[in-house]
Amino acid sequence: MMKIKEHCGIFATIGENSVKYTYDGLKLLQHRGQESAGISYVEDGIKTIKGLGLVEEALNEKEVLQIKSKFSIGHVRYSTTGKTTLQEAQPLSNEKLSIAFNGTIANYFEFGNYSTDTEFILDFLSKDIKEGKDIVYAVKHFMDIADGAYSMVILDDKKRVLAVRDPKGFRPLVMGKIGESIVFSSEDSAIKQLGGKVLKDVLPGEIILVNPDGKILSDKVPSTSFHTCAFEYIYFSRADSKIDGVSVYMSRIRLGEILAKNHPAKADIVVPVPESSRPIAIGYSRESKIPLEEALIRTIVSKRSFIMPTNDKRKSVLEEKFGIVEDAVKGKRIVLIDDSIVRGNTMKRIIMLLRNSGAKEIHVRVGSPMIKYPCYMGIDFPSRSELIASNKDENEIAKILGADSIEYLTVDEMKQAIGRDSLCTACFTGIYPLKRNYSLQVMESVFNR
């Protein structure tokens, strides 16, 4: 059975210090994928180096920095399809093309026996090019038949780099400049931290081609409606990023403010689950006038449990993930703030730790709606059976987790907080903004990890 996970980070550089900037960019996008990392570059043809683990584990920095190519693309992986193997780590390349891809092609299984959707993309584009088609034509042809979410960067043997964002704009992609070098990144925060300037968001449906001489061409396929993933704002993206001009940090602050206003709890302290929940907790504390305490301490070695490839690995990560400041929680009524609850593994253990440390009451407030449906646009919950909220109400969930109460935002409250209506809410509503309707049973059988 095929397996799924996801969220990835991509980076590309055209110009001086290309491979160095791409390498450093990937490190700044590490939160988007921790399974593998890789870089493709042009030097007497396309060369690709990649490895398993974090960027600094997967790639030898000393060797990387000796590469003098001016054309490179890179990838950190958290796989949507396939397995955690070096063979399936990205970028995926052949002698003509290399692909670094963030998203999920929901219908890729209909086109052949591919182990990953990235393999399908590479094969599809390569066939068109082999038949003499121009690379932009090949990309447009792919966009015509592909259904799903994709932001990707493409490198060819002619030293051209393309940046592509799907017509719905599910996944973010940004263009910038560092010195005289053109860069593309999954998030603008990485560009800014490298001392660069953000030029623009790649628009939904846009294809940007950078030629070897630096000349930039832009094309676009029709795009009727945008559906950027709400989880980019809630959880995945760095708080210092902006997506399509909307601040992730301020969105999370407003999520907390609306959560406090519409879902109050009588409590002594507000406690965030680190890291992405902190701005939500700040917003909740400000609005409710309940003081915030950093009573959960995340261990330095901990990784994001949600993006671990298997449930066993997620649970092993939880064992060493949090410490409790007992003096802050003993005898206290706590509002425990989390950005989202998918499977419930993390929350159940945190509540147990807080109880053992003397917490009097624990009221969980969640800065997103209940996740009831699988995602086939690039996030790791492909099966309803994995989702704690798929067939339970708030009272049932509170009982399972060991909380005194739990309340979530509604979809409308979430949209109000983020400040845009053009969001993908499929995992909350079961309404998938894809080209076609798919049977959930079929999709679960194809994508279940």
From TrEMBL:
<keyword id="KW-0408">Iron</keyword>
<dbReference type="GO" id="GO:0051539">
    <property type="term" value="F:4 iron, 4 sulfur cluster binding"/>
</dbReference>
<keyword id="KW-0328">Glycosyltransferase</keyword>
<keyword id="KW-0315">Glutamine amidotransferase</keyword>
<dbReference type="InterPro" id="IPR005854">
    <property type="entry name" value="PurF"/>
</dbReference>
<feature type="binding site">
    <location>
        <position position="229"/>
    </location>
    <ligand>
        <name>[4Fe-4S] cluster</name>
    </ligand>
</feature>
<keyword id="KW-0460">Magnesium</keyword>
<dbReference type="InterPro" id="IPR017932">
    <property type="entry name" value="GATase_2_dom"/>
</dbReference>
<keyword id="KW-0658">Purine biosynthesis</keyword>
<comment type="similarity">
    <text>In the C-terminal section; belongs to the purine/pyrimidine phosphoribosyltransferase family.</text>
</comment>
<dbReference type="GO" id="GO:0004044">
    <property type="term" value="F:amidophosphoribosyltransferase activity"/>
</dbReference>
<dbReference type="GO" id="GO:0009113">
    <property type="term" value="P:purine nucleobase biosynthetic process"/>
</dbReference>
<protein>
    <recommendedName>
        <fullName>Amidophosphoribosyltransferase</fullName>
        <ecNumber>2.4.2.14</ecNumber>
    </recommendedName>
</protein>
<dbReference type="InterPro" id="IPR000836">
    <property type="entry name" value="PRTase_dom"/>
</dbReference>
<dbReference type="Pfam" id="PF00156">
    <property type="entry name" value="Pribosyltran"/>
</dbReference>
<keyword id="KW-0479">Metal-binding</keyword>
<comment type="function">
    <text>Catalyzes the formation of phosphoribosylamine from phosphoribosylpyrophosphate (PRPP) and glutamine.</text>
</comment>
<feature type="binding site">
    <location>
        <position position="424"/>
    </location>
    <ligand>
        <name>[4Fe-4S] cluster</name>
    </ligand>
</feature>
<feature type="active site" description="Nucleophile">
    <location>
        <position position="8"/>
    </location>
</feature>
<keyword id="KW-0004">4Fe-4S</keyword>
<keyword id="KW-0411">Iron-sulfur</keyword>
<keyword id="KW-0808">Transferase</keyword>
<feature type="binding site">
    <location>
        <position position="375"/>
    </location>
    <ligand>
        <name>[4Fe-4S] cluster</name>
    </ligand>
</feature>
<dbReference type="GO" id="GO:0000287">
    <property type="term" value="F:magnesium ion binding"/>
</dbReference>
<dbReference type="InterPro" id="IPR029055">
    <property type="entry name" value="Ntn_hydrolases_N"/>
</dbReference>
<dbReference type="InterPro" id="IPR029057">
    <property type="entry name" value="PRTase-like"/>
</dbReference>
<dbReference type="GO" id="GO:0006189">
    <property type="term" value="P:'de novo' IMP biosynthetic process"/>
</dbReference>
<feature type="binding site">
    <location>
        <position position="276"/>
    </location>
    <ligand>
        <name>Mg(2+)</name>
    </ligand>
</feature>
<feature type="domain" description="Glutamine amidotransferase type-2">
    <location>
        <begin position="8"/>
        <end position="213"/>
    </location>
</feature>
<dbReference type="Pfam" id="PF13522">
    <property type="entry name" value="GATase_6"/>
</dbReference>
<feature type="binding site">
    <location>
        <position position="427"/>
    </location>
    <ligand>
        <name>[4Fe-4S] cluster</name>
    </ligand>
</feature>
<comment type="pathway">
    <text>Purine metabolism; IMP biosynthesis via de novo pathway; N(1)-(5-phospho-D-ribosyl)glycinamide from 5-phospho-alpha-D-ribose 1-diphosphate: step 1/2.</text>
</comment>
<feature type="binding site">
    <location>
        <position position="338"/>
    </location>
    <ligand>
        <name>Mg(2+)</name>
    </ligand>
</feature>
<feature type="binding site">
    <location>
        <position position="339"/>
    </location>
    <ligand>
        <name>Mg(2+)</name>
    </ligand>
</feature>
